[in-house]
Amino acid sequence: QAVSGNGQAAPAGFAVAEDLVVRLVDGDGNGVGGRSVTWVVSTGGGTVSPVNATTDGDGLARTRWTLGSSVGPNTLDAVFSGLPAVPFTATASADAPSKLAMVDGNGQSGTVGQNLGTQLSVRVTDENDNPVENVSVDWVAGGGGSVSSPTSGTGADGVARITRKLGTVPGPCTTTASVTGLAGSPVTFTCTANGGAAAKLAIVDE
């Protein structure tokens, strides 16, 4: 019988707060001590300690569950030979933001005064490379032009995006994305503003 510990949540790679506890009983509902219960991880790649737990005088066996390193569902079974397995579930969430990395939009060129064709994007991840949502990224345009917003938040995929508008003078430009305290911050994108087509036809006196 499941006693406690089902349905918990913790950051990926961390142990859930409560022990997982099952109770082994006989046909009359009395606890059976001195028997080994095996804890088997089914999905999520986590670990348990101990893998084999001996029931106490009340028939209780317990273990500690450390979730896998990826965000998502984790499952395991408490197994005693000859009886149906008792399932437990837990949810692994992203840990605190740890790293900032470039995703797309570097090295573009375009016409002065116009938007670059591809948005600039960066990704925020935790220590296990899981995406972290709702992190504010600061953007600064260098070498003329502007960004569509000085800050943008990461989505469920950990990605924050902005549109880069080039300045009115041809030449190189940069854009930096930063989050204070993260490894890899700031991220620097390069770009080039090219001169536009001639806009006027002038008459020259002979």
What does this structure look like?
- This protein is mostly beta strands.
- The strands form five sheets. A five-stranded mixed β-sheet has the order 2-9-8-4-6, with no helix packed on it. Strands 11-19-18-13-15 form a five-stranded mixed β-sheet, with no helix packed on it.
- A hairpin with a 6-residue loop joins strand 8 and strand 9.
- The radius of gyration is 28 Å and the shape is rod-shaped.
- The chain starts with a strand and ends in a 12-residue tail after the last strand.
- The model has no long low-confidence stretch (mean pLDDT 95).
- How many strand elements? 19
Class based on secondary structure composition and strand pairing: mainly beta
Largest β sheet strand count, sense and barrel closure: 5 strands, mixed
State the helicity in percent bands. under 10%
Give average pLDDT, whole number: 95
Order of helices and strands: EEEEEEEEEEEEEEEEEEE
What characteristic shape results from the CA principal axes?
rod-shaped
Approximate strand percentage: over 45%
> Based on the structure, what is the oligomeric state of the protein chains?
single chain
Low-confidence stretches: none
Q: Could you write a compact summary of the structure shown?
A:
By secondary structure, the protein is mainly β.
Topology:
Blueprint: E1 2-4, E2 8-11, E3 20-23, E4 36-43, E5 47-49, E6 52-54, E7 60-66, E8 72-79, E9 86-93, E10 99-104, E11 108-111, E12 120-125, E13 136-142, E14 146-147, E15 151-153, E16 159-162, E17 164-165, E18 171-178, E19 187-194
